[in-house]
Amino acid sequence: MIGFRNVTQTLNASAQAVPKPGKPRRRVWLVRGLALLLAWGIAELISFVALAFQSGSMSGSWRELEKAAGAQTDVDDPLAAEDSVHPYFGFVRRPKDQDNAEPGTLPINEFGFIDAKSPIQHREKGKVIIGIVGGSLAQEFCQFGLGEFEAQLKRFPRFADKRIVFVQLAIPGYKQPQQLFVVNYLLALGAEFDLILNIDGYNEVALPAVENKPAGVFPSFPRDWGVRVLERRDTALLRRMGEVVYLQEADRAWANAFSAVPWCYSPTARLVWAVRHEWLARSIIAGYRDTIELREKHRSFTAQGPPAEFSDLPSLLRHCVDVWKRSSLELSKTCDAFGIEYHDFLQPNQYLPGSKPMGELERSVTVEEKYPGRPAVEAGYPILIEAGRELASQGVKFHDLTQIFAHETRPTYRDNCCHLSPTGNEILAVEMAKAIGNR
C-alpha cells in the first residue's frame, strides 16, 4: 500500500513538472508569423525597387496592368463574331436582334451598320437626311457627337425648322474606296440622302502602311483582308493565329486576376504579373511575325490581291492619297448627280506636328513615340492636305480640320491613335456645322 502511494505521488509530481504546451506553441507560431511578415516585407521592398526600374514607378506599372486588364482582341479583329465579310465593301458588323440585345451594346441594323434604323431612308417635306461615312473616328462622332452637332445645325436657317435624320454608315477600319462603295450601293438600293458627310484621312494613310503592306495585301484592299478571307486549307496559318488569340486572352485573364484586391496593392504580385506579361507579349509579337511569314509563304490572290511594290513609305503614301482623292471626287460627282450635298472633312490627328498644344497628362496618354501609325501620319498628312486643296479647286466641298485644336489646351484626344475626347467631339461638331451651315 505504501509502495502504491509512493508511485502515485511520484506520477503526480512528474505531471506537475511537465510544462503546459499552450504558451510555448503560441510563441513558436508567433515567431514563425513574424518571420513570414518580415520575409514578405523584404520581398515587397525588393519588388517595389524592381518595378521602379522596370516601369519607372509604381504608377507606371499600374497603368500597364490596367491597360492589359482592359485590353481585348482588337474591336476590328476580323475573327471576332461581330464582323462579317461583305461582298461589295469588305466587311460590316454582324446584325443584332435589337429586342434581345444585351444592355449597353451598340445597335446593328439589318445591313450591318452601327445604327438602330435602316439606311434606306426617303425624302419627305420638312425632313433632312444626313448620311455619315468614314472610319472609327466618324463612328464615335455618330455615337457621342450627334446631339451637339444637331444643336449647332439648328442655329442655321436652312436646318432650323427641319427634322434631321442621321444615317450612320461609318464603321471602324473603313477607308476609301469603301465609303464610295457604301454610298453607291445604298443609292442603287433606293436610299435617298440630302447630305453625305465623309470624315476620313487617318485610315487612308495609316492602315495601308501599318497593316496591308507588312502582310503583303494590296494597299487599297480593306483592312485585315488577308485574314478575313483565309483559305480553309491553310491550317498552319490558322493554327498560329489561334495560338496568338489564345495568348492574348491568357494575358488579359492574368491581368484581370492581378488587378483584383488584394493583389493589386502588392508590389510582389505586380512584379510576378509583369514578368509573365512580358513573356506573353514577346510570344504574341513572335506569333504576329510568324503569321506574316506564313501569309507571304502561302500567298493567295483572293487574300492579297495584285502585287504592289513601293520603293519607300512616301511612294506608298502618294499612291494611297491618290486613291483617296479620286474616291472623294467620284463620290462628290455621284452625289451631285443625285442632288445630294457632299462634304469631305479631313480629320485631325495628334501626330501632325504643330496641330495641338498638349499638357503633360494628355501627352502621356495620347502620344507614343514609337506608335506604328506615327510615321505614316507625319509623312502622309501633308500630302492629304495638298490633295484636299486640289479637290477644292475641282469643286469638292473639302474642309481641312487638321488645325481645329491648334489653340485648344484642353485634352481633345482620348487614346494614342486618333480618337477624340468629349471635348474633341464637341469642337468637331461645332466646326463641321459651321462648314455646312455657311454654305
What can you tell me about this protein's structure?
By secondary structure, this protein is of the alpha/beta class. It has helices at 2-17, 22-55, 58-70, 136-144, 146-153, 157-160, 178-188, 202-212, 225-228, 235-258, 267-297, 301-304, 313-337, 360-366, 374-393, 422-437; strands at residues 83-86, 90-93, 127-134, 163-168, 195-200, 341-346, 397-400. The strands form two sheets. Strands 4-3-5-6-7 form a five-stranded parallel beta sheet, sandwiched between helices. Strands 1-2 form a two-stranded antiparallel ribbon. Helix 3 (58-70) packs across helix 11 (267-297), helix 8 (202-212) packs across helix 13 and helix 10 (235-258) packs antiparallel against helix 11. The longest helix has 34 residues, at 22-55. The protein starts with a helix and ends with a helix. Residues 58-62 and 72-81 have low confidence and may be disordered.
